[in-house]
Amino acid sequence: MIKIESLKKNYSGRTVVDIPSLTLRGGDIVALVGNNGAGKTTLMRLMLDLTRADGGSVFSDGIDVAHDERWKDFTGAWLGDGFLPDFLTTEEFLDFVARLSRIGAAELERRLASLAGLLEDVDCHRLLRHLSSGARVKAGIAGALLSEPRVLLFDEPFNFLDPSSQLRLIALLQNYAAAHPEALILFSSHNLTHVRRLSSRILLMEGGRIERDIRPVTPGTLSDLEAYFTACDR
Hints:
alpha/beta, globular
């Protein structure tokens, strides 16, 4: 579903992404892990054409994301507060997404019902800018899921969520993957327990490179990741 070829991004003379080749396929939940500065967010921004590469290409379903916008029709993403219009309520925001995606009233009701668990403690009538950080994350993730896209990208989706909300999000993404077996879900996280529980494939980034491509994910994967990051801290 996503193919990367010779992708490079530099900032101030420093290489922050350097990936010669990478293919991510539908049907996988892929976790992107690494310490701060590893290049995870920059990689996702390149995948969404929010940052232009200094070399190479990203193809989504065969479409070069930097030169053709058709990939946006089947892509949902949450990379932080910049994805939210502060002057709308959550209800208005989701209605706006629905209209952009040409989702009718009856279908919108069905899709909102599937997101009710995620949004159950969000005041959908308050302006987004007045919501807590956790509620804003939930609204943003709901907006990304509403169009039921084939490609989903989430940057640290568990940030600001309380434990109950984190568990609901894990269940929601697992259910989404089961209901949409062709979908690709890519998320970054510092929570290795969630990574182990949710993902079917793990990409470990360091210095802008994919240092490890872990698949399948097994019960021993968490211990392996913990050992890796413990060694990095020495």
